[in-house]
Here is the input.
Amino acid sequence: FQKITNLKIFLEEREIQIEFDRKNSISNDVLDPQLSKRLQDIIQFYKEEYNVDVIKELLVTNAYGANVAIGSGISDYVQDDEEWWLTAKNKGVYTGALKYYDIYD
Here is the structure.
């Protein structure tokens, strides 16, 4: 990412492509499929252990806000405009309250 001349345009184009792929049932490529699998395993563990589907969105981003692994959810490709991401970038960590999103009902 450091070598990309216009990172903002690159990320915007990537997000448009992923949204197109999602709408056309093409799986979006993930930079780290092993990490994505690990996130999916964590989600599955909680489903099996507690018989509750509590994690609807779980992802990992890089220092630029681009997703590098997705365990679950229909998230944007770029997270750099999200409050939690900005806090994590500035402070090194973000811990927030659990939230209910009715879009997952």
